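seq:
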Amino acid sequence: MGKEKFYITSAIAYTSRKPHIGNTYEIVLTDAIARFKRLMGYDVFFLTGTDEHGQKIEEIAKNENISCKQHVDKISGEIRDIWNLMNASYDKFIRTTDDYHEKAVQKIFKKLYDQGDIYKGKYEGMYCVPCETFYTQSQLVDGKCPDCGREVAAAEEEAYFFKMSKYQDALMKHIEEHPDFICPESRRKEMVNNFLKPGLQDLCVSRSSFKWGIPVTFDEKHVIYVWIDALSNYITALGYDVDKKGDLYKKYWPADVHIIGKDILRFHTIYWPIILMALGEPLPKKVFGHPWLLNGTSKMSKSLGNVIYADDLVRHFGVDAIRYYVLREMPYAQDGTITYETIIARYNADLANTLGNLVNRTVAMSNKYFDGIITNSGAAEKIDDELKEFVVKTKDEVIDKMNEFRAADSLELIISMARRLNKYIDETTPWALAKDVNNFARLQEVLYNLLEGIRFLGVLLKPFMPETSESILSQINSEFNTIDTLDKFGYIKSGTVTKNASPLFARIDEAKKLEEIEKEVAEAQKKAKKEEKKSDSKKEDAPAEISIDDFAKINLKVGKVLECKRVEGADKLLVSQIKIGDEVRQIVSGIAKYYSPEDMVGKKVVVVTNLKPVKLRGVLSQGMILAAADENENLSLVAPDKDLSDGSKVQ
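struct:
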């Protein structure tokens, strides 16, 4: 009989930009679970990859003056490099621009259309480009996207829709009958109470306002929208096709678990299961929505300037130290946090002082006292039995925790085992035993127990810190490195010779390391700012050409500022009452750094009068004041050099 299969996936990373450590956490967690399952004897298939279509990518490529494919090739390559850097042991890396995926998705869309689950209609709503999602006005939070908090824009376009409500009752029944389908439990309650119980709306599954996507075969004005495209990767990667099902699909589907971030839980626990129901395919067994890794207390964001990248962290601390940190610091259901200070503190306490010191001094004592020759002398005492019982019990607890994907709890148990072994050294005092030849048999037994305990550590660390695990097992020269050899103490054979002690983790000088990082970050920011200015300069030097008809669409008029005040709670914003001919417009401008309200009153300014009104910090703005800025961030309002009457047209 063959091994039991285990199919695990991470979400596919969006190719808008290089992933930060918060994004990278997911691949490390998924890899740790995949490695654990392999350790337990499962036939594992681990899928990851990149999501490469959509309006956001089309806009980025246009701004970079390159093709969409050139952009996604570059970012997908960067993502794969980081996954490899972090030792992700994936079996397949799918790209949604892969030809086989695109063809399979087109067939899926056509099948759903032919059976009446997809129909053509028109969408009117508020659209968030970064999230690639439409929202109704009632779904917005303070007028902004409820998921990412960014600005949304009104959009209306012809689109195809998927009949979500048709499958709502079936999905609710499935969730009730499979309470572990969505975990943690808090996430299941959130999905049921916030989305399923209020009732599902039909889902927009095509777009016609941009071209970078998989074309609908029977209506090429439309491209297939992200959810059917991206979510289908979990089956197309296995060779699924409407007309046939590949061998990998027959072997591994349904997935045992999708590992995804809590922010995309709705798409994986509502949209994806319903798509599968409509296709007549089995649902994944479990969807695990992990929390976020925050920088301090804030979500990482390029605009906030608090992004930390995995490759930078690895350069300073090493791959396994960063794998350990992100897995150890992320609770099961609550957000975790990362700062350079907390990394150094955890590194020194757990890796250098506890684990590294244990292995180094034990191997060093074996070499010093017995030329590295390990001997199970049998000179046992009661304290040895207590240690053995603790270690074997801990191994069982680690397995139980990892079966629930509780990586942080598992690592705490493993480090607790290392602490207990260090305590055993203090209790047995090998250095004192070494002073009397009559105690040599006892010293041999103590070192044997320590080395066996370290063997347990080395095997249990395989899923989490593969390089460290290999180094530990190599130093003690262990040939018994499988999970089934952790059923008891005593596998290391007498006569085995330990190798030279090699420090696993050198203690870090916090002040020195923080100073080094601070200088590096400052240099990187300086360089990025310089590149940004250079890029902006190039854009200004070579603007996109427009026709006179395009320019005529912009309505510019001279206005006079009657009143001006600061927007409450917004340091950068002023709100002005501006007379433009026979009307007075209220306009919000981000110029408070350069002009006071008193400066503004009485000024003549040039105003764009046909912009769609928007709310900024809850204040209505009915246009835009024009201003110019140089590379030194000096800003000046654009104004007529003669005393023109307000309402005069600028042309």
